[in-house]
Amino acid sequence: MIKASSHRAFAIIILFVLISAILLPRIIELDRFVTVDEPAWLIFSSNFYYALGQRDFEKTVYDYHPGVTTMWIVTAGILTYFPQFRGQGQRYIEKYRDYDQVFAAFDKYPLELLKKSRLISILTISMLLIISYGLLRRLHGEAIAFVAIFLVAYDPYFLGHSRLLNHEGMMSSLLLASMLAALVFIEQNPHWSFWVLSSFFAGLAILTKSPSIIIIPMVGLMLFLKYFKQWKELKQPFVWIYYFLLMLVFTGFICITFVILWPGMWVNPGKMLYGTFGNALSYAFQGARLSVAKELNPNQFGLDLNGIGTYFGGLVWRTTPVTWLGVLIACIGCLAKDRYSFSPILKRSIFYFGLFSVLFLLMFGIAQGRNAPHYIITSYVFLEVIAGIGIVGGFRWLGGKVKFFNRSWIIIALVTSFLGIQIASAVSQFPYYYTYVNPLVEFFNKDNLNVGYGEGLEKAGEYLSQKPNARELTAISWFGYGPFSYYFSGQSIHMPPTTTTMELSLLENISQSDYLVVYDIIQKRTHRPSLLMDALTGVSPEKIIKINGLDYVSIYKVSDLPSSLFKSLNR
User: Are 153 and 121 in contact (CB under 8 A)?
Assistant: First the structure.
């Protein structure tokens, strides 16, 4: 009885430590900065909320994401902060300026809504990580579960995105929970609750972002290998029917999740599915959404194999040395054949996690269209789980081989030191955790690939807000709505991020502004708008904002700009 109660107390302490470790770096200063994608998703989600109020359920689709879970999260944020939005007297909002005006009319702030929505998302992701911990604990024990989920929680790239309002952090957390629930069912406990839980999480993941559909063939492969093993051992001719029914149940509950949680499916499922997966296929194989490509034409399908190297290089760049070492040990452990090597179920888990990570990388690596690095955060998450298995399993193997390491306190000290390095790698970049660069890679390549998601523009807004009569000032900024405007008390003018040439309207906006804010980390790297970048050559800004030693933002006082600059632009 004493031992059982002591073990229960220890398990509670471990769980408390893990929950605290997951939450703390995510909930601190949630309104510190805004990324370039988040203001758009506030608008999309607010329109989703408005559509619900108008019973206009066909308006609850957004392209290929479909982003339904994200939009439900913001809807919950609106209900707690700005429920009056539904009666704002306007139709659906498309422009950032109109959105800000609606909030201002009710003395509300988009940044506050973003903060509340981020918190709801963080709590959801944290809950999913704890569920994953419980499932992994059932499979491989306390130590592996704790270390693996801890490494996931402090993966710098995942940590950085899991505290933002985006899809990738949520999607990867749902896919991890789904995969682990399926593994528990297939490998350990064939109770229907685990199978239904896995399919429910898979459905939510696909509702978050369409590429999650890869979980269906992945689970199908896991079932097939289990069936093949059983058929080979027992020679039961009709056992395939059981596994076929399992797959039907899995996909069936995914469909049920779709129908229940996506209001558009209630009235026009064909439009919802075509809009989502048709756009996804069009983007992947034709390089543009259906509104541009007009139709799905297999004759025009193509693949870009160069993307595989780009994504793999980014994965190496952004993962920590601890992750590298853990994955390497796990691979060695899978090949080892002595009595201290990994168990068969551990090896199969590593194989499934590794395969899923590679498949996600390949899926985006061969697709055309946009290739944002955060699209493959799922690969990072599953690699961290493999690393956790490798570190714990590796020290256990070492303890069996070397007597000195066969002491629990030594293993605990070593594992703790690895976790400490992982923590230090992530938190050193606070609050922009995702800007982490593996120091071993950075030693050979100084060009940081992890920058330019809007971080730093808030500092420009805060700087200009300290000016006398700041409310009367006008500033034009790269991505002025959101990353800059939420922190600037004056009037913000948006400089489109895709502008490649100097348009007359942009020149007029600059001349009518008090300050020009240039996002050096992107605009000077990509040299856009080219005429503006050329004209600013040799012109000293009033203020340069640096982050990690890099020039991020330059602030120019328009009245101090030489007249020759405007002449060179107006040609």
Answer: no
Q: Are 99 and 92 in contact (CB under 8 A)?
A: no
Place of tokens 């068969």: 344
The phi-psi region of residue 44 (left if phi > 0; otherwise alpha if psi is between -120 and 50; otherwise beta) is alpha
**Whole-angstrom Cα distance, residue 85 to residue 93?**
11
Q: What is the pLDDT of residues 201-223, one digit of tens each?
A: 999 999 999 889 999 999 999 99
Highest average pLDDT, of 227-236, 283-292, 408-417, 456-465, comes from 456-465
Residue pointed to by tokens 């632009």: 569
Tokens of residue 330, six digits: 């796990």
353 close to 331: Cβ distance less than 8 angstroms? no
- 3-class DSSP state of 550: strand
Evaluate whether residue 468 is within a structural domain: yes
Please count the other Cβ atoms lying within 10 Å of the Cβ belonging to residue 234: 9
Give percent of the chain with pLDDT exceeding 90.
55
Report helix, strand or coil for 492. Answer: strand
- Cβ-contact 39, 47 below 8 angstroms: no
**Of 87-96, 151-160, 295-304, 560-569, which one has max mean pLDDT?**
151-160
In a domain, 509, yes or no: yes
| pTM given for the model | 0.92
- Please count the structural domains in the chain: 1
Residue 542's φ and ψ, nearest 5 degrees, are -70, -35
In this structure, the number of other CB atoms found within 10 A of the CB of residue 166 comes to: 23
The string of pLDDT tens digits covering residues 28-87 is 999 999 999 999 999 999 999 988 888 888 888 776 678 999 999 999 999 999 988 876
Task: Identify the pLDDT of residue 334.
Answer: 86
User: What domain range includes position 483?
Assistant: 457-569
500: helix, coil or strand? coil
Whether 480 maps to a domain, the answer reads: yes
Residue 345 domain-assigned?
no
Residue 302, pLDDT > 60, answer no
- C-alpha 119/C-alpha 123 separation (Å) is 6
The pairing of strands 515-518 and 550-557 is antiparallel
| Euclidean distance between CA atoms 432 and 262, whole angstroms | 32
Report the distance separating Cα 504 and Cα 483, nearest Å. Answer: 24
